[in-house]
């Protein structure tokens, strides 16, 4: 098992730090993600990602020696599932505030996009989403599946 530490600053650089963390989570199979608010003159979130194997390095853009410094596009579901993806993001934000956690601890964007595309109907199907194991399914699965069902009924 390997571990990678991240610092999420609580200032204008927060989105850059979150993107770096999300990019890493896309390249590994996390076993556990732990976070803690570190107090000080400038409080930050400290995030530890425990994972198996080697993290795949980010791929450089075609014809370039190094990756572009710009943040890559966020993973997005198919256009047909955009409303569900946004509903899942809104739910995640509300849940994160209620549990006093950073949103990426609950689920990162790629997981929400995968849910919006896969449209799971059971907890077992939900655990087939990369990075969404039994513990997350037990904790958040019923609420997520309710959003998926609601999105399905609204399309009819």
How can the largest sheet be summarized?
A: 3 strands, antiparallel
Given helix and strand content, the structural type is: alpha+beta
Report the helical percentage.
40-55%
CATH architecture of the largest domain: Orthogonal Bundle
Overall average pLDDT: 82
Indicate the CATH class of the largest domain.
Mainly Alpha
Number of domains: 2
What's the name of the CATH homologous superfamily of the largest domain?
A: HRDC domain
Order of helices and strands: EHEEHHHHH
What proportion of the residues form beta strands (DSSP E)?
15-25%
3D architecture notes:
With 156 residues, this protein is an alpha+beta fold. The chain has 2 domains: 1-52, no CATH class; 74-156, Orthogonal Bundle (DNA polymerase, domain 1). The protein has 6 helices and 3 strands; from the N terminus they run βαββααααα. It has helices spanning 14-27, 82-99, 103-106, 109-118, 123-126, 134-155, and strands spanning 2-9, 30-38, 44-51. It has a 3-stranded antiparallel sheet with strand order 1-3-2, covered by helices on one side. Helix 2 (82-99) crosses helix 6 (134-155). The longest helix has 22 residues, at 134-155. The chain is globular, with a radius of gyration of 16 Å. The chain starts with a strand and ends with a helix.
In short:
The protein is α+β, with helices and mostly antiparallel strands and 156 residues long. The protein has 6 helices and 3 strands; from the N terminus they run E-H-E-E-H-H-H-H-H. It folds into 2 domains: 1-52, no CATH class; 74-156, HRDC domain (DNA polymerase, domain 1), CATH 1.10.150.
């Amino acid at each position: 098992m390997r571990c990678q530490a991240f610092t999420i600053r609580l200032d204008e650089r927060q989105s850059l730090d979150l993107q770096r963390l999300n990019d890493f989570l896309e390249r590994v199979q996390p076993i556990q993600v732990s976070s803690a608010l570190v107090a000080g003159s400038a409080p930050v979130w400290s995030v530890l990602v425990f994972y198996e194997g080697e993290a795949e390095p980010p791929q450089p853009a075609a014809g370039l020696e190094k990756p572009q410094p710009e943040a890559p596009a966020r993973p997005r579901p198919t256009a047909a599932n955009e409303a569900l993806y946004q509903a899942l993001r809104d739910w995640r934000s509300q849940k994160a505030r209620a549990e006093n956690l950073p949103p990426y601890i609950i689920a990162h964007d790629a997981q929400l996009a995968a849910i919006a595309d896969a449209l799971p109907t059971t907890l077992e199907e939900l655990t087939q989403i990369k990075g969404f194991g039994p513990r997350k399914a037990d904790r958040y699965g019923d609420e997520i599946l309710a959003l998926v069902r609601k999105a399905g009924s609204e399309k009819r």
